[in-house]
Write a structure and sequence with these properties.
10 helices; two-stranded antiparallel ribbon; 346 residues; disordered N terminus; globular; TIM Barrel; 40% helix; alpha/beta
């Protein structure tokens, strides 16, 4: 065999192998979650970390000024106006900046219509959108029509995350997701579309049959064990990682085993996986190592990831020290760690 023919076969074979591998066929994405109202000044900082992914959260407040049970039409108008306001900032501020710095924007609808905290403190409406006859379903689909109409084709836009941690049963969620994708594709045939497992739970992804369509990405979130990650009261954060938590020994190997079903599902279906959120309360003992271990598993399996969350809430703020009273410091250990991984984006 001639040398030129041999090289041609090798090159073609490698190209086919890369194309068949979801982890290798795409640019790896490493970044963070941000809110849809974020301004240029904050975005500059995250860009300087070399993040190349912004998961931008559109969050209609759960403490809505209108009870959806009392006046659905007024609530729906409030919901849509709130979403439109946040989408305008994505369109006019976040997308142009992201494009100028080579960052990709994933637009996340973080709360479904109808999700509401009552005056007594009860949270209702999180599953209304999955009922075929409830008006929240039509509002959800119309909301994606409006989002897509405003953002389709904009430089910097990478994709749409249909719904954060959907609470409906997997079969109902899949039906709704498929309908939303059809509506989006009528307006935008190029953007990626992210479909999360039920509640974002890694253990529930195998319940989800692959979605029909192209450029579909599947996403999970990781906060296990929540007895460690959600120690939200700083003075009572006594559970440490790695260590024995809720009767199990938690370390990187346990993190990997907790995500193995996602990896198996990915390999079975040739899917691309995004770790859309992961974090631990900043004052939880061992939170730095926990976040590093989650990232290491993602890196080892070629997954994209976005940590939770950049300048969103004190409890998750990686720019502050471990002490609960700490303000932002020049370079926290968590910031240094995240920067070291994001440096791979260069």
């Amino acid at each position: 065999m001639k040398k030129s023919s041999f090289l041609f076969i090798v090159v073609v074979g490698m190209a086919a192998w890369i194309a068949a591998s979801p982890a290798l066929a795409q640019t790896r994405l490493r970044g963070g979650n941000v809110n849809a109202g974020m301004g240029r000044g904050d975005l500059v900082e995250l860009a300087d970390w070399n993040a190349n992914l912004l998961r931008v959260q559109i969050v209609p407040e759960i403490e809505a000024p209108i009870d959806p049970r009392a006046n659905w039409a007024a609530y729906a108008a409030w919901y849509q106006s709130t979403v439109d306001h946040q989408v305008r900032n994505i369109r006019d501020v976040i997308l142009p900046f992201a494009h100028s710095r080579g960052m990709k924007v994933l637009v996340d609808l973080h709360r479904p219509p109808g999700h509401y905290r009552t005056s007594s403190g009860d949270v209702i409406g999180g599953t209304w959108v999955f009922r075929g006859s409830h008006p929240s379903r039509a509002l959800f689909l119309n909301t994606w029509d409006r989002i897509t109409d405003q953002l389709s084709g904009r430089p910097g836009l990478w994709g749409y995350d249909l719904l954060n941690e959907p609470a409906g049963r997997t079969n109902r969620w899949r039906t709704l997701a498929q309908e939303a994708i059809s509506r989006i594709r009528a307006r935008d045939n190029n953007a990626r579309i992210v479909v999360e497992s039920r509640y974002g739970d890694p253990a529930r992804l195998p319940e989800l049959a692959p979605i029909r369509g192209h450029r579909i990405i599947y996403s999970v979130h990781f906060y296990r064990p929540m007895q460690f990650t959600h120690q939200l009261e700083p003075g009572r954060a006594t559970i440490a990682y790695p260590g024995r938590i809720a009767g199990k020994n938690w370390n990187r190997d346990r993190v990997r085993r907790s995500l193995q079903r996602v990896r198996d599902w990915q390999n079975r279906h040739g899917a691309r996986i995004l770790m859309g959120e992961f974090a631990a309360a900043r004052w939880a003992p061992g939170s730095l190592r926990y976040m590093r271990d989650v990232i290491e598993v993602c890196e080892g399996w070629g997954w994209d990831w976005a940590y939770h969350a950049f300048r969103e809430a004190n409890v998750w703020d990686v720019e502050r020290g471990m002490d609960a009273s700490s303000g932002r410091v020049a370079m926290s250990t968590k910031e240094r760690m995240l920067r070291s991984y994001m440096a791979r984006n260069r």
